[in-house]
Every structure is written in structure tokens, then in C-alpha cells.
Design goal:
Length: 302
């Protein structure tokens, strides 16, 4: 398959010496090989939830290609759980217990009118630092496998505020890193902000948490030591803030980083291509535990 790419070079410094700076280039693009894509996060105490789709060529219309009738099992030291297939209308209120329906409705042209996923009403057991093994078999005979662990949560020790001369607060989130291995963290910091309606007003009684910081980091510079994540001086007395600390597997850490890089590259014609990390054998995606510690705090006057 060939695509004709027109490149127009406009460089005023060279116009005097170059009469024609437009060149037609033919690029041979190899045939795309679609792959199965898995996304599954094991959160202790909540039901199993897994999505199984097939990737699509870059130049095709963007639409989720769900895979149905697969056999999905997750085994661990307590036995084996089989996930059932569910097909729910995107407007079904039950779906709100498992996914962000606002996002699904916003991108309904991509997700379609019905969401297909695999789940089990049996909750994920609290088996920290033990292996969970995923196996998926499709009707076409494709087999996907993966292994992960649910790491133990790393508790937040405390939230500490500091006020500047303008009574704006700076927040420190203290925690203590485990020193027996390399650890990976995702830090999410949120603050309640007024909800702005379609008329542009800000109701006094309607607030929602909005993300202020969201990043991942390893413990290279604070291995086994107490550490604190900080913020800018941007919170007023009375503001409610929420700090969340995720303890991530290395696979999840690398998946998060490379996925962010791939999204960034897709938004720019000059971005470097990025390959998203996967721990799925026979396909792409991520199978990992999801644990976190979370603290909420109201900024106080000193």
C-alpha cells in the first residue's frame, strides 16, 4: 500500500537559490498485522474486570473492535476464577460501577453503543506479593498469557501544609519507601474546584476533584528512605485536597510511561515513535495489580 506524501518546504533564506522546494515522495507502508489487546487491573476487594479488543491500522476509522466468546481464567494460590462475558448498553446504569460512563458517552463513536468486557462478581482476593496468572483462549485458537503480582500498599505517613505570606498553601505528602527492592510509584494529587456549567457560572455548591499532579517515578534517589512529594503554593485556606500514592509493578510503570510517550508522539508530526510496553504473551496490553494509599485534607489557617 502506498501513500503519496506532499512535503512543502518554506524557508525564506533559501528562496533566492532554490526555484522549487516542493517534492513528491512515495512511501511504502507495510501491511498491518492486528493484535489482541488486553487491559486488566486487579484491585483487591473489587470484581475482576478485563477488556479484550483487537488493534486497528493507523489509517482506519477509530473504533473499538471487541473480541467475544473468549475463555478467560485467572489463577492464583487460592484457586482459579473464570471471567464471564458481559455485553452492556453504554447507557446502562450498571456500567457506572465498572467504568467512567462520562468518558464512554463522550467517545461513543469509538466505543460503540454496547461495551463488551469480561468480569467476575467474585472479588479479587487480598493476596499481596503472590503470582496471578492470566490465560485467554479465543474462538480462533489464539492463546494469550500473562503473570503479575498485587504489591502491598505503601501507606502515606502524613500530609503537611505550609503557608506563604499570601496564605496560599504548599502540601507535602510523606511516605516511607521499602528498601528490599526497586519500587515504582504513581503520585496523583487532586483539589476540589467549582464545576462550571454551560452558562459560564460557578455554582457555590457544586465541586469536583480535579487532577493537579499525575506522574510516575522510581525510588532510585530515595531507596529505603522517608520521602515527600510536594506541590506549588496554590491552595487556599478551606480547600479540600486529596493525595493518592499507587505502588506499581515494573511492568505497569513501563506501560504507563511508554503509553504516555506514544500518545504524545501521535499528537505531533515531529514526535518520535514509541512502542508501548506489554507483559502479555501472544498479544499486547497490561495485566497488573492496582493498589494505593489515599488521604484527604482540608487546608487550615495557622
Amino acid at each position: 500500500m502506498k501513500y503519496l506524501v506532499y512535503i512543502s518546504l518554506i524557508a525564506s533564506l533559501f528562496l533566492a537559490s532554490c526555484g522549487n522546494l516542493q517534492q513528491d515522495i512515495e512511501i511504502d507502508i507495510p501491511e498491518y498485522d492486528p493484535q489482541l489487546v488486553v487491559e486488566c487491573y486487579l484491585q483487591p476487594g473489587l470484581p475482576y474486570f478485563l477488556t479484550l479488543t483487537r488493534s486497528q491500522p493507523y489509517f482506519d476509522d477509530i473504533r473499538v473492535d471487541y473480541i467475544e466468546d473468549a475463555i478467560v481464567t485467572i489463577s492464583h494460590s487460592g484457586g482459579t476464577d473464570t471471567l464471564d462475558e458481559f455485553n452492556l448498553d453504554i447507557t446502562d446504569p450498571t456500567l457506572g460501577l465498572l467504568a467512567d460512563t462520562a468518558i464512554l458517552n463522550t467517545f461513543s463513536s469509538i466505543f460503540g453503543d454496547q461495551l463488551t468486557f469480561y468480569a467476575s462478581l467474585r472479588p479479587v482476593p487480598e493476596l499481596f506479593n503472590e503470582d496471578f496468572n492470566l490465560e485467554i483462549k479465543t474462538l480462533d485458537g489464539e492463546v494469550l498469557t500473562a503473570k503479575t503480582q498485587i504489591l502491598n500498599p505503601v501507606p502515606i505517613d502524613s500530609l503537611v501544609q505550609e503557608l506563604d505570606e499570601d496564605s496560599l498553601a504548599f502540601i507535602l505528602t510523606y511516605f516511607t519507601d521499602e528498601g528490599d527492592r526497586t519500587n515504582y510509584y504513581r503520585r496523583v494529587f487532586e483539589a476540589q474546584r467549582p464545576v462550571i456549567d454551560s452558562t459560564g457560572t460557578e455554582p457555590d455548591t457544586t465541586f469536583e476533584f480535579r487532577i493537579i499532579q499525575d506522574f510516575v517515578v522510581d525510588d532510585d534517589i530515595f531507596d529505603g528512605q522517608p520521602f515527600a512529594f510536594g506541590t506549588d503554593f496554590e491552595f487556599a485556606i478551606g480547600d479540600t485536597i486529596r493525595s493518592t500514592l499507587y505502588h506499581m509493578t515494573q511492568d505497569h510503570f513501563e506501560f504507563y510511561n511508554t503509553q504516555a510517550a506514544a500518545v504524545q508522539a501521535s499528537l505531533s508530526p515531529f514526535g518520535q515513535p514509541a512502542v508501548v510496553h506489554t507483559n502479555i504473551s501472544g498479544g499486547r496490553g497490561i495485566f497488573t495489580g492496582l493498589v494505593f494509599s489515599q488521604e484527604t485534607y482540608v487546608i487550615q489557617p495557622e
